[in-house]
Amino acid sequence: MSRYAAAHRVHRRWPPRAAGLVVLGTLMVLAGAGSLLAHSTRSTAQPRAGAGAGAYGDALAGPVPASTRPAVASATLPIRLRIPSIQVDTALQPLGLQPDGTLQAPSQWQVAGWFRAGVHPGSPGPAVIAGHIDSRSGPAVFSRLHELRGGEIVFITRADHSVVRFVVDDIARYRKDNFPAAMVYGPQPLPVLRLITCTGAFDAHAHSYLENLVVSAHLT
Questions:
Q1: Rounded to 5°, angle at Cα 156 from 101 and 27
Q2: 47 DSSP β-pair partners
Q3: 74 with 80: CB under 8 angstroms?
Q4: Is residue 79 a contact partner of residue 92, using CB atoms and an 8 Å limit?
Q5: Do the beta carbons of residue 119 and residue 127 sit within 8 Å?
Q6: Cα–Cα distance for residue pair 151/147, rounded to 1 Å
Q7: pLDDT of residue 101
Q8: Cα end-to-end distance, the chain, whole Å
Q9: pLDDT band at 120 (very low <50, low <70, confident <90, very high)
Q10: What is the DSSP secondary structure assignment for residue 103, as one 8-state letter?
Q11: Which domains are delineated in the chain?
Q12: For residue 54, what are the contacts with CB-CB under 8 A and spacing of at least 6?
């Protein structure tokens, strides 16, 4: 997306034969997320409904109520994502918030990013990782995310060199105007992983894809 660096936005730039591929990583509008404080407990607003990766701006639904979680040690920071079945092997860039409240985009098309104010992978709750689907020159890091199937394995390496392993449970598509934010981003008693990008029909007038693809996985 041509303006993804501003807020996960894309143009349809590929040749016609490639135009059917889903596009981009994740745009998420956060309601009042605070700064991350080490060794403390803080209130974290969840991403707003419709948290997608649309082109340009997307009209999103209302925010999900905030929840609390303990901050976690830097040793558990995720630094690398591997999904062997779809040949993904990427460093992970921490993503914060833009001044307008939207999630920052990964600075490179082939690098995914994790929401640093959210849960670290392997800790209780939903950890969120977003990535681009295409670029001006072709496929990007999550171009094959839609090919994942239940039972396939996702590996995340952390700063202390430990590796946490997730098993894919579900691959779902949601319209951005009816995105189940409470389910995707809400509190969970066990560690879960969400991998998010765009999919569905492309709205040429709005320069936006109409749906999000959400892959959910559990720690094993």
A1: 20
A2: 30
A3: no
A4: yes
A5: yes
A6: 12
A7: 60
A8: 34
A9: very high
A10: B
A11: 4-34+43-59+75-219 (2.40.260.10)
A12: 8, 9, 24, 27, 176, 198, 206, 208, 209
